[in-house]
Amino acid sequence: MAKKTAHVSETPATAFLRAHGVPFSEHAYDYVPHGGALHSAQVLGLDPFMVVKTLVMQDQDARPLVVLMHGNRTVSTKQLARQIGAKTVEPCEPQVAQRHSGYLVGGTSPFGMRRQMPVYVEQSILDLPRIVLNGGRRGYLVGIEPQVCVRLLGATPVHCALAAE
């Protein structure tokens, strides 16, 4: 059952947002392993297009990068690689992603990561009035204006969305 809370204990992501004066809404839900953005959208009654997943990927030289993608879309790694000047891009193994981000997979937020990495955002996300993305803990999302990702993370817009299968 979805539940909205006034406040979940602080995470590195919420501390980062507060430190930068970013207003955000909080959305807690019962986490389900491998449920992903579609599960959270369903239980919270949100459009999966506005629920943004944070994906830790790497290029051919194992250099990590972050991709922000709609919850109901997948990343075309070929399109992404071409746009960022890489030969290839692929998802990191979960333990590698956790080492880079400092977050458990399923609770990865682009804010307050352990390691600074380049961030890429699907262009159409920036056209939305509001997005909801992970707040740094499994079962916890925060709602923000999408331009915050560009302003605070230096996110580069890309076109690499494919319809989810």
UniProtKB/TrEMBL annotation:
Pfam families the UniProt entry points to: tRNA_edit
GO terms under biological process = translation
Name used for this protein in its record: Cys-tRNA(Pro)/Cys-tRNA(Cys) deacylase
What's one GO MF term for it? lyase activity
- Enzyme type, top EC level: lyase
Q: What are the protein's UniProt keywords?
A: Lyase, Protein biosynthesis
Spell out the InterPro entries in the cross-references. Prolyl-tRNA_editing_YbaK/EbsC, YbaK/aa-tRNA-synt-asso_dom_sf, YbaK/aa-tRNA-synth-assoc-dom
* Protein family according to the UniProt entry: Belongs to the prolyl-tRNA editing family. YbaK/EbsC subfamily.
Query: Which species does the entry assign this protein to?
Result: Extensimonas vulgaris
| UniProt-listed Enzyme Commission number(s) | 4.2.-.-
Residue intervals of the YbaK/aminoacyl-tRNA synthetase-associated domain? 41-148
